[in-house]
Each structure stands twice: as C-alpha cells, then as structure tokens.
C-alpha cells in the first residue's frame, strides 16, 4: 500500500512556524517565507501541501487566507484549514484555490453541518481533522486550536463520519506534535481497524524515514511532515522515495 507524503506549512501572522504540542506559547519561527518553502516542496516533487492557519484555528476566522491563496499557486494541490466554521469559509477556501478543506473544530462541534458539506461538495473536497489527546484511556478531541476540551471522543466521531460518507481523516496525536518522538502507531493501528474505509493521514512526531514506513505499515494512507523537514532531519526527496 502506498502512502502519500504531504509536507506541511503552519502559518501564524503570515510566517512559517511550528508549535510544540499545539501550545501557542511554545512557538518556533522559521526564516523561509511561506511561498519560498512551498516552491521548494513543489520542486522536490510533492503532489500535496498541507496548510494550517493557526491564527484562524484559535480565532475562528480565515486570518491567513491571502497567504493560502498564494500557496495554492505553487504547483501542488493544497489541503488547508484553521478557522473554518461556516459555509462561506468553505467557499472562500475553494475560491482561493484550495483542493481540499480541512475541518476540525466544526467537525467536532457540528458534525451534521459538516455532513451537509460532504453531500453538497463531495467527500473528496474535505479532510476531517480529529486531532486527539489520550486522557484516562479515552481519545479526547480538543478544539479551537487544541485550546478547548469537547465532550465527543475520537471513537465516537470517526465511525460517525465513516458512516456519513467521509473519505479523508487527519488525526494528530497532540502530545507528539512537534516533539520529534515518532508517530503514535497504536493510534493508527486502532483507526485502521475501526474505520478501514477512511484514508487516514498520520501527523505528529515524525523524525525519520523509518517513521514514515512504520506509519504505512500501521495502516496510514498519508503522512504529514512538518518540523522534521524544516530542521533537515531528512529531505523531502528521500521521504517521497519511501
């Protein structure tokens, strides 16, 4: 089974950044301009780019939409999210050239609304982001840029979306995000067993090419690469060759 290697660009105030475990107080800024980084990824052969508007995720609006529109012209298909709450947000991202809209907080809080979008626009136009944190043997689902706790759980919503026609699921183990500790393979094996009909994208903690291979073996259909690429742990060319 092949795995889609997807480089990521996280945006805050129009700059490329990474957070540790989703903590806005633990931010690392990188010198590369977003459009320059995207151009490098496209030249390396990436077919998809994952873009997160961190300002929008916390505030509930599309703060970095203008930057996203530029990135959508870099030669890759873009999946982007952060701040998507209503139909107009979806339309604005499509209008900016985004191929697939990533829905997170609204997917947790208002699944019926998101199911309507799947029906209206098609499941291939959306990635359901159910980023999770293990708490008392339960995969919880924090929202609003991982700053607010929600009552629904991963094991409740992932099957719900599978039953309502979703195709793509992005799942980050928040505790590993930005930590270079490797993917949580237990999480992705669990998802492969419980929602095999969903194409799961693994995110959070990749540190080596072996982590990519391990995620594929655990059942992931895509891997999101952030800090490891920014810090030169390996090249995108080598990751794509995996």
TrEMBL record:
<feature type="active site" description="Proton donor">
    <location>
        <position position="131"/>
    </location>
</feature>
<dbReference type="GO" id="GO:0003949">
    <property type="term" value="F:1-(5-phosphoribosyl)-5-[(5-phosphoribosylamino)methylideneamino]imidazole-4-carboxamide isomerase activity"/>
</dbReference>
<dbReference type="InterPro" id="IPR006063">
    <property type="entry name" value="HisA_bact_arch"/>
</dbReference>
<keyword id="KW-0963">Cytoplasm</keyword>
<dbReference type="InterPro" id="IPR023016">
    <property type="entry name" value="HisA/PriA"/>
</dbReference>
<dbReference type="InterPro" id="IPR011060">
    <property type="entry name" value="RibuloseP-bd_barrel"/>
</dbReference>
<feature type="active site" description="Proton acceptor">
    <location>
        <position position="10"/>
    </location>
</feature>
<protein>
    <recommendedName>
        <fullName>1-(5-phosphoribosyl)-5-[(5-phosphoribosylamino)methylideneamino] imidazole-4-carboxamide isomerase</fullName>
        <ecNumber>5.3.1.16</ecNumber>
    </recommendedName>
</protein>
<keyword id="KW-0368">Histidine biosynthesis</keyword>
<dbReference type="InterPro" id="IPR006062">
    <property type="entry name" value="His_biosynth"/>
</dbReference>
<keyword id="KW-0028">Amino-acid biosynthesis</keyword>
<comment type="similarity">
    <text>Belongs to the HisA/HisF family.</text>
</comment>
<dbReference type="Pfam" id="PF00977">
    <property type="entry name" value="His_biosynth"/>
</dbReference>
<dbReference type="InterPro" id="IPR013785">
    <property type="entry name" value="Aldolase_TIM"/>
</dbReference>
<comment type="pathway">
    <text>Amino-acid biosynthesis; L-histidine biosynthesis; L-histidine from 5-phospho-alpha-D-ribose 1-diphosphate: step 4/9.</text>
</comment>
<dbReference type="InterPro" id="IPR044524">
    <property type="entry name" value="Isoase_HisA-like"/>
</dbReference>
<keyword id="KW-0413">Isomerase</keyword>
């Amino acid at each position: 089974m092949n795995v889609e290697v997807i480089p990521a660009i996280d945006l805050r105030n129009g700059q490329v950044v990474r957070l540790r475990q989703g903590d806005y107080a633990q931010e690392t800024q990188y010198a590369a301009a977003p459009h320059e980084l995207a151009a490098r990824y496209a030249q390396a052969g990436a077919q998809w780019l994952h873009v997160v508007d961190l300002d929008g995720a916390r505030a509930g609006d599309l703060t970095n939409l203008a930057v996203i529109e530029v990135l959508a012209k870099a030669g890759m298909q873009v999946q982007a999210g952060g701040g998507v709450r209503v139909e107009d947000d979806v339309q604005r991202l499509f209008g900016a050239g985004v191929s697939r809209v990533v829905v997170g907080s609204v997917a947790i809080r208002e699944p019926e609304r998101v199911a309507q979008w799947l029906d209206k626009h098609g499941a291939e136009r959306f990635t359901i982001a159910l980023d999770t944190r293990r708490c008392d043997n339960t995969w919880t689902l924090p929202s609003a840029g991982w700053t607010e706790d929600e009552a629904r759980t991963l094991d409740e919503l992932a099957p719900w979306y599978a039953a309502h026609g979703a195709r793509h699921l992005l799942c980050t183990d928040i505790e590993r995000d930005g930590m270079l500790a490797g993917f949580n393979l237990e999480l992705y094996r669990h998802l492969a067993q419980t929602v095999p009909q969903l194409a799961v994208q693994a995110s959070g903690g990749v540190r080596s090419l072996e982590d990519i291979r391990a995620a594929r073996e655990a059942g992931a259909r895509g891997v999101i690469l952030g800090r490891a690429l920014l810090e030169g742990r390996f090249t995108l060319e080598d990751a794509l060759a995996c």
